[in-house]
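DM from R.C. (forwarded with permission)

"hey, sorry to bug you on a friday — could you get me a structure for this? deadline for the figure draft is monday and I only need the backbone to look sensible"
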Amino acid sequence: MRESKGRLDRRGLLGGLAVAGGALAATGLMGDVAGAVTTAGSGGAAAGRGRFRGKVVLITGATSGIGRAAALAFAAEGARVGFCGRREQLGREVEAAIRRAGGEATYVRADVRVEAQVKEFVDRVAGRYGRLDVAFNNAGIGGAAEPHAITLEQWDDIMDTNARGVLLAIKHEVPHLLRNGGVIICTASSAAEQARPNGAAYTASKRAVQGIVKAAALAYGTRGIRVNAILPGTTDTAFVRPPGLPDEVWAAYRDAWGPLNVDGMERMATAEEIARAVVGLASDDFPYQTGASVAVDGGATAGRKMVNPPTGG
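My reply, with the result:
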């Protein structure tokens, strides 16, 4: 174990981990995406430049976390945003937040595991706004179990949501994108490159996303569609934070976890930071990039393996 460049000493690191480790281990969560709350004006330097004015952006899994942050960030850049998620109340809250800030958004309740719902969602967004320019296929779930302990139901749910859901989204987005060209970005994970003992299903699903992205990039590269994957590192969201954990306990764990596990920046990401990376990749600034997996993980996968990940990530 190394010291943390003066921010936290060894005792502070271990103390924070000890306080929260038990609560986190009990959750069975795995994580790099979801759950953060943000506001429409929180895009920082990337927001408000209008790079997506006149464009239509579709997002799956945008009722919380990175998806929510991305919806707000794209709207702040002038996009008309159509997004889905299973939690209707949260979806309506995101929709209202964008509209209060002067943006345009449409929430559609849809489950990415169900093809009919995916098709209806995509067609409804494209029909309402008359086109589709960017698709951010972000919906995903986690789950923690060693290979011998995972049930087939758990395996199927993770694979159906994370991998099959991405394939279904692309299947129904492409016919609209072929009309004018566009960009597809899919959420994989740093866990695709850095497996955990309890993450067989999660890592397999995110590796599958990378494979789908590569195949789609080859299929549509000469037809005006760029397709890339983003690999977020562990992000400070509800996806990795157990429900009901007191703020001070989570803060102690989070602040201790970063220096132990992220060699580059020694902290977790925020949902807004990952969203800004998505917005950038979807812009016209990367016209020759397709079929790529872009790590946005603070240098975690560039260094040693995680020694104490929050049940995945």
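R.C.: lifesaver. The radius of gyration is 19 Å.
me: no worries. The chain is about 40% helix and 10% strand.
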